[in-house]
Amino acid sequence: MELYQNRMVVKVGSSTLTDETGRSDIQSFERVARILSGLQDRGIEVILVSSGAVAAGLGLLDKASSSASPHRRQAAAAVGQREILRLYDRFFSKYGKTIGQILLKDEDFLLEERRKNLLRTFEELLELGVIPVVNENDSVGSDGPQSEKRLFDNNDMLAALTAVLCRAKRLAILSDVDGLYDCDPRRNSNAELIVKIDRVSDELFRMAGGAGTRCGTGGMK
Predict the structure, then answer these.
(1) Prediction pTM value
(2) SS3 151
(3) What are the C-alpha distances in Å from 54 to residues 19, 81, 221?
(4) Apex CA 6: angle with CA 5 and CA 8, to 5°?
(5) Is the backbone of residue 133 left (phi > 0), alpha (psi -120 to 50) or beta?
(6) How far is CA 112 from CA 117, 118, 125, in A?
(7) How does pLDDT run across 196-208, given as a tens digit for each residue?
(8) Would you give the end-to-end CA distance of the chain in angstroms?
(9) Which of 44, 65, 152, 169 could form a disulfide with 39 if both were Cys (CB 3.0 to 4.6 A apart)?
(10) Distance (Å) of CA 163 to CA 83, 124, 157, 193
């Protein structure tokens, strides 16, 4: 299918939206709102896929992410989702933009009728000039936020699925590193950036490693 040349999905990770203590980084939320508002002002239809609900919830509850059980993380997502929407609304409103929340589960992509309804919702919001803010529906996922049984277990995958569904020309994943390296640049100062990937292989997956930060579940893999 033909892609929309002026449509873009932007994914922001937990590590970008939280500070060293695990709490929401206010300046990062403001920066994301400013940049995406500027893109929309240039005629680009923007869809934001945002992590950060679990991290924000755990931060508000003064709980450590490393020791949180799956059910605790689900509860934290319910608290944190309110927090990140409050911050996004605060800063997008500053630039005259309206946001709309969409929380998704596997079934929204796998079941044909739900997929069609979801696409219609995206199309209507974009036509109205609303910036959709998308996240996993972690609070009600029966298998928890990181189950292997799920179609997507992190927002990198959710962003990719959203981009395909909405036929977006571009997908940008904002990260706290410059890209995929041949080894972890946090541990090896000689790590080299891989500028272009022509083929995904087992060796490439081994290079990518696991989750990138204490807050995030995606990472380079």
Answers:
(1) 0.85
(2) coil
(3) 14, 8, 20
(4) 100
(5) beta
(6) 9, 10, 20
(7) 989 989 888 888 8
(8) 27
(9) 44
(10) 25, 16, 10, 25
